[in-house]
Amino acid sequence: MLVPPPERVAVLGLGLIGGSLLRRLADLEIPATGYDADPATRAAAGAAGSVAEAIDGADLVVLAVALPAAGGVLDELRAAGYTGLLTDVTSVKTAPLRLVAERCPGARWVGGHPMAGREQSGFAASDPALFDGCAWVLGLEDSTALEDWLRLAALVTGIGARAVPATAADHDTAVARISHAPHVLAAALAAGAARGEAGSLALALGAGSFRDGTRVAATRPALTAAMCGGNAAAVRAELDELIGRLVEARKLLHESDPVAALTPWLEPGHAVRSSWPAEPGVPEQRPATREVLLALGRAGGWVTEVGADGETVTAVLPSD
Amino acid sequence: MLVPPPERVAVLGLGLIGGSLLRRLADLEIPATGYDADPATRAAAGAAGSVAEAIDGADLVVLAVALPAAGGVLDELRAAGYTGLLTDVTSVKTAPLRLVAERCPGARWVGGHPMAGREQSGFAASDPALFDGCAWVLGLEDSTALEDWLRLAALVTGIGARAVPATAADHDTAVARISHAPHVLAAALAAGAARGEAGSLALALGAGSFRDGTRVAATRPALTAAMCGGNAAAVRAELDELIGRLVEARKLLHESDPVAALTPWLEPGHAVRSSWPAEPGVPEQRPATREVLLALGRAGGWVTEVGADGETVTAVLPSD
What is the reported pTM? Predict the structure, then answer.
């Protein structure tokens, strides 16, 4: 099985992620055309004038619009008869999997999610180096053709990212933990600190832990709501978990020696954060099978290269 | 009322904060002697060999040890007959206020807290520029002599920090919001993300929001526990507030349109964080009275200079 790279890429939506991708592809001299609904962005990016024009001749379409806008673009792709490779960059994976099956079932779908956000958004904030070394999840379902997955993996590893194989369900559980719930916590912390008469002094005293703990509360509420609302069940489960932990900490602070009581409760979080991010282990050649890839992703590993014959991948696991 | 600067400062405890202060005082050519219980730190800092030696001739003693060690040092100060100005740098203010009243009642106490932490600790991490522009709370109780407060304020503003007047109770409420609760949240987030079989993938996908939301979980658990446990009532109240907000977010994510439901809930945190930190307003001369100072601190303001006559201060409020 050969894994030919895409001959022409269409990037639909030129915000931070789409814009950065289009610029990176241009740097690598991979033929790519962009499109954005905003005329000023199209002008700034030298983009095509319509979706139909952008996808003309493309064998990979990257859906880089926010999830609420995705349905309309999928309708255009279907109307244009697009049946090639299709991926996205949104921060949830179950919802687009269902949406594509419904609105553009003829396309060969491999969901994608580069873990490379910023508080800034828009083409003006785009940066071709945005994906260097970042984890880029590529959805591997029972319904995914392995060849399609490997073609996408070859592209994202060529861009310099780590291709992480995961099912949509596993992805959505993971990002609820490490992105969506942290966004909700940040908003709660910022709003809570500022409340009432004591708020002014509190904000005047805010330093490092407040700055970092609330940083992502500066993200536009519509974006955060789309992320969390598009992954509502997993985020609810994660909030339950966190509420449970905070209730526990609260109880320990009621004991006669709260310092001694709280110390062991803090240890697991300390152990996790002190050894994160893990150093990459030694790269190894692995057979490019569905089972090997999914096991690699579940173990916290990733693919750094796809063999040209499509038979093997270069796999890396975090070192202990 | 004249506000003479201290003639000789003793800094007891030469970790990150005490070490940075000692080095800053040396840079400013303010006579200062340090002491630390650890012989290697004493050697590195060129410190005195005992508490008694360090405080010999000092008219300001800065207690820069962790709260659990403070009682023993206060006993030494009392045994040495110290009756001069005494301050500290710990992250809670009610507990040391009580402790000093009990263990060293002859000293003139003004509690202090520079908002300038780091994950690193110890003299090796110290930095004379650590306090540049930071908020430095100075406790102003009914029992505090205004002259003592102003002498301390003259010193910390001379160091380049913002002197923030606050009662111990108001301080402890504020830091529960902007420091102690964020430390508990960070630990919960880090430990929660790593749990169970899904933990490895989650940690592999962790990016900016996880990195920042959990940063302070890397602080030594004993330090975080001492902070939070030393301010247990205020931290419990803040955890209640945050748990309530998370329960609310969880409910909104259960609505039929969770994106629309969550958006307005995110707005207050977004508004707070987008305008934080506030730009300083125009400095103004204010009478140096207890009422003026406490009102300034409650309004989120600070003192940047103390008039040499002790009658006025230069006050700054955050601009709107």
Answer: 0.93
